[in-house]
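Appendix B. Raw example, untouched.
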Amino acid sequence: MSKILISIMVLVFGLALLLPAAIAQDDSQVILEEITAEDLGLTEEPTVLPTSPVGYFFKNIGRSLQTAFTFNSVKKAELQLKQANERILEAKIVAEREGDNAKTQEVVAKALEKIESLKDKVSQRIEKIQENDSQSADRLLDLVTDREVKHQQLIDNITVKMENLSEERKVRIEEVKERTLEKYSNLLERVDVDGEKIRERLEKVLDRNQDKIDNLKAIPVLERLTDKIQSADIKESLTEAKVNITDRVIEFIQVDPNFEKNDDFEQKLRSMQSVSDQDEGYNLRALNLVKERLEEKVQTAPALRAINTNIERLKEERLQYFKGKLEEAGSDDDRAELLKPLEEGEVGSVEVLEEIRARVQDSNLVEDLKERQEVQIRKLNDRVENLQDGAKAETLRQMIEAKPEVKRVINKESQILDRLKEKAAEGSAVNSSRQEVSPVRPVEKRPEGSSVVDRPASQQTRDQNQRTEQNQIRDELKEELRRDQEIEVRRENMETNAEVIRPLPDRDQNLDRQRLDN
């Protein structure tokens, strides 16, 4: 019996020694969430890889021929997007098998640059298709949205899998990642234009994922996307999308809480740990958003308290990690690179930077962080000034009012809250005046269960503008037809008087009548 007790004590003592080391190792490693061929809409993983020169040469010839003989623009865009998915999966497999080989790393870097070129062609085709076939363009943009989020995650995974990656190639890969996301943001602004439409698209695409918790991985990507968008109103729509997507994940856990869901939720959040220190600020912003939404839900859902406590602990770990990186930064440039994701005029960025500043002891670093906060406030002020939507201004004001620390920081440096109140009031006044001057129109019959609020106000305005344009075109066609009819009457009269006149082509008249009918 005594031997058994001694054995148990030795075992417990050994575990006590090993456990901290295991935890430390866990924190230092990046947890990767794998993306499969199925996630990218492919039936199988590629077998012929860029590391096989002869086989891959013929594979690319086949791709070129297939593209050349695909004449339909929609089909060609789908094909090129499929080829981009295949190539990024090829790069991932090569990185897994031979990631520490310098020659292989160059192959992967070139493959990612080729993917960028393919996606450029897809974007150009979508813009052209949009002119004549908005429905197909809409479907293609849904596909591109889904793939872009996954490609961003895959590039991070590829970078991690390649050990001893040279700094030059690492920079090239990071630049591809940033350029492709920026081009995607430009495509959204050019094709969708309206912020509400972009928000609806992002939510719709992510809602299709069977693994709802998996959508947490998209939040850091959306944080980066928000910073690349130029329009202040679209930025606010993206902020709303991030909140809605996070809320749906939490509600999914809340419906049927269990250990597996909670564990998966925490693992997904831990996987936000950045593959590069430069991206850590975006992950902190995402983690801060999730924690904020959890705290609100906990008030009415006690079952979420345990997971909320764990996420609070995780957030503190990441804040301390980031603080350590700032203190270790070898130069002002290194520190500026770390802080870049927190310099934008995002309310979440202001909150995170203030939390970091509160944990810093070094007086020089504190002063540096205060300067960064001034940059934040200037950018937030610019964002407020560029806001056109009064409702969005009011939403932003309420968001700031609900965060005492953010409100304190903002009020020290500017009059942003007062300006937001003015913007919200201006928006309300404009909407009221529009309602007063708008002519009374007969009530349109709508399908059962539908209402005017089914569509956002911006969509209704755009629809009204389209109807106005259509009415103008119809009036112009009517006028053309009236003139043609007068000419036809004159011609008949002249023929009656035996005068010769060149008859008007019937085909042109029929075309005009068809256009009028349409």
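End of appendix B.
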